[in-house]
Predict the structure.
Amino acid sequence: MSLLLALLLDALFGEPPARLHPVVLMGRYLAWAWPRVQGFWGGAFYWSLGAFLFTLPALLLDLLLRPMAWGFLLLGPLLKPLFSLRMLLEEVWGVEASLGRDLEEARARLSRIVSRPTEDLSPEEVREAALESLAENLSDSLLAPLLYYALFGLAGATLYRYANTADAMWGYREHGKRGAFAARADDLLNLVPARITGLLLCPPRLWSRLLVEAKKTPSPNAGFPMAALALRLGVRLRKRGAYALNGQAPSPTHESMPRALFLVGSLGYGVGVALGLLL
């Protein structure tokens, strides 16, 4: 029931205020710790310290609330900030809506959801990058935290969200050994969720192609949901100078976006409801 309540809160209200958002607190800790990180083991220490500080309270709250008859009324709101689907759908549609008005506005809007430079992207590249973010975040922002919640409770979802946030802040290749532990921890935690997301997004008849296309990206995980969406829509998704997924297909058009948003939204909430009913 707690998972179903959290999904309902996400669908109706989206994200809580920043001052109450645990991911914002995680970001503040990571920003505080980063100047103190020296080398690989420094990164490992401060990553582990943060994981302990955020995961232990979640574990204690779960142990306290789960046995209570109405504990789900509190567990649901505690789980909600650890995943996000409504905001993802709104942000991606915001890029598409901006693209119809002004390219510079669309590039700026896109920069909120991708880490690559957006200043010189063409309209086709803006749309492709937005769809890549939609697919990757279906795994990172929804299915993975819900899966870890189903397996390990509130502590599992919290640890995953912390690791994903740490990777987003520390895990860039240019950070070298300082961010390597955060990057590898996120890779490990996403191994299974990313592949499940890819298989769910991609039609079974195209699974063999999915395994080939997913290997084209530098990330060991992101290629699976991104390639799956490219194959499902019959479009090309690419990053300039790095890869082209389903490269022989045409670039997505304006008509591709509503279909992609409906697909990701229905799959995301559908899987969430299924997990909620099984718990």
Observations:
- Residues 26 and 53 are 10 Å apart (CA to CA).
- The chain has a mean pLDDT of 95.
- Strands lie at 237-239, 243-245.
